[in-house]
Amino acid sequence: METKSKKTVGSPTQQFLKLSEIRDDLIVMNDGTLRAVLAVSSTNFDLKSEEEQNALIYSYQRFLNSLEFHIQIVVQSRKMDIAEYMSKLKVLAEKQTNELLRMQTQEYIEFIDRLVESANVMNKDFYVIVPYTTSITPASTGIFGKLFGTGQSKQVADREANLANGRKQLDERANTVAASLSSSGLRVVRLGTDQLIELVYNSYNFAAGPSIDASQLEKVTIKDLRN
Fold it and tell me: Exposed end of the chain (fewer CB within 10 Å): N or C?
């Protein structure tokens, strides 16, 4: 008698993630620690004068020496997506009434196409991860708690109070880091909840799409930081 083999059910992707939830402009890790993420602009060090280079080095050195906690610096490289830019150029070429300008625009489009194909043009996004260690635990109870609600309300209330305190401490750290980096001439934006979700999704689905859409950031966007 043949026995049917049991189908192997794949484990959900979530169990491989080290984060528990994203809320209130922060990431809650599985171990209860918190993370804030700062997007930081880049600067062309080689184009600066020797005096400016030295000032930048000393400023960054002071920043590192002033830290009383660990930080993580993340550089995310992604192939530049110029599809939207190329589409706009093609529309301009089609609407161009001057034949010479139309031909020049078309030649420029072809040049950019060849350049992108031959050179690996990359965008680099820079992030500073600011941690805070707290004792936040998953909001779960035993079987009787699940059936009758015993202690569940208190556990949730305690967890929220602990999270609020941890968020306050994390905010102070993030503000300190942002102020120090800003004094070095860099532009800093703290990612909100929506931007954190997009960043995590794009990090685990690297080939799925372009860099995070930071269009909802107030006043300053990630694209602005690249300039």
Answer: N
Q: What is the DSSP letter of 183?
A: T
SS3 state at 102: helix
Q: Compute mean pLDDT per 10 residues along the chain, 227 residues long, and list them.
A: 47 69 90 92 88 91 91 86 86 90 92 82 88 70 44 74 89 94 91 91 67 43 45
| Alpha carbon 45 to its chain's center | 23
Q: 24 and 115 share a domain? A: no
**For residue 103, what are its two tokens?**
């031909």
CA atoms 48, 51, 55, 57: torsion sign: positive
| pTM (two decimals) | 0.69
Range of the domain at 92: 81-120
Alpha helices by DSSP H, listed for the chain, are: 50-66, 83-95, 99-118, 143-148, 152-182, 193-204, 222-226
pLDDT score, position 122: 78
Q: How far is CA 161 from the centre of its chain?
A: 27
